[in-house]
Amino acid sequence: MGFTDSGNRLNLDVFAVEKTGNTRVSTSSNVAEEPRFPFSDYTNFLSELFKWQDQPGARIIAAGPVRPDVEIAADRAEIELNEISSESPFTVNISQLLKELQAGSGIFFLANPNRVTGANVSLEEIEEMVAAARGGLCIIDEFYCDGQAATALNLARQTNNLLVLRPVESPVGGRSNQLGLAAGSFETIEQLGRFMSNHQISGSQQQIMTAGQSDESTMRTRSDLVHSESIRISTTLSGIGIQCRLTPADFLLIRVAQPTQVANALTTAGVAIENLSGYPGLDQYLRYEIKSVRVSERLLNGFDRMPSDLYRIGAIDPRPIKLRRGAESAQTHAKERPAGRFRGKPVRKTTGAKTIKTSTTN
Fold first, then answer.
1. Residue 335 maps to which CATH number?
2. Are residues 49 and 128 in the same domain?
3. What is the spatial distance between Cα 165 and Cα 187, in angstroms, rounded to a whole number?
4. N or C: at which end does the chain have fewer Cβ atoms within 10 angstroms?
5. Cis bond before residue 113 (omega within 30° of 0)
6. Rounded to the nearest 10 degrees, how much is the dihedral formed by the CA atoms of 340, 344, 346, 347?
7. Who contacts 90 (Cβ-Cβ below 8 Å, separation ≥6)?
8. 33 and 134 in one domain?
9. Residues 302-354: pLDDT tens digits?
């Protein structure tokens, strides 16, 4: 599963699947310490969580940028999604999130680290935001839970309005984008189980969840690979004029002059690469998830074979990669977007006007 032995490991024995396929909370002796709820489809499950907490005037306050599956889930639940972003997409706008949460929302969503840019927050900041939500449901997506970001798993055990979502490791390596577990207090998981009493996990999915548990040695090996490959790739690409940003997750952000052409060339070379041009402030960025040394070699060879004018940029992007809140208050500009990519409720984009520069990885 990708968790340490320091109280942050998820135990798959805490849930069971009845013969009908319906999930239920386990009656095992350790359930009070390790209550979990399994899910088989991330987007559908997130949508059901939003519906669970829906009430008149409810809205979702989300730390941006958010991936399309979060927008789809909000749309299916027919709840307005308010995406709160900083001027730098590589930071989290803590002050504006707190302001919005204190105004009352019903639901708070945070991916830590951010699944698009890797922006992350501290446990203290998570505690502050959960408190500001005043009992409204808080959802922390820890898809990259074995990285360097803080985990809210222990906090979720003690807090009745907090759920932590974590993925299941695939038996063949890598994380599942769909299968996962929701962690929370016993009371929260029990209430969720009653609300989603018809939620089903198939026998084959249960087998994948069980087989996908990783031991500490496997986790450490994976972490070492990601670290060494991140340094190697960023050093090599920097040498030919490409800016890279390291993240606390297992992906790199690569800034190039012509992202569409570069992405097409790398895809042809057999490299899975994501063009982030559709996200505000990321129009020249590609996202590369580190899989293996062999795939990384394909990436580097792909750049070797393409014309340098496709990737070389004269100046670096100096925007900060981590937000540290100071005494200054940020002016906020809110802009309403129509029902954009998906039908239904609009998505509000709120951006803080000030960020404080700390460091940038070139």
1. 3.40.640.10
2. yes
3. 16
4. C
5. yes
6. -70
7. 117, 118, 119, 245, 319, 320, 321, 322
8. yes
9. 999 999 999 998 889 998 776 333 222 233 333 333 333 333 444 555 554 33
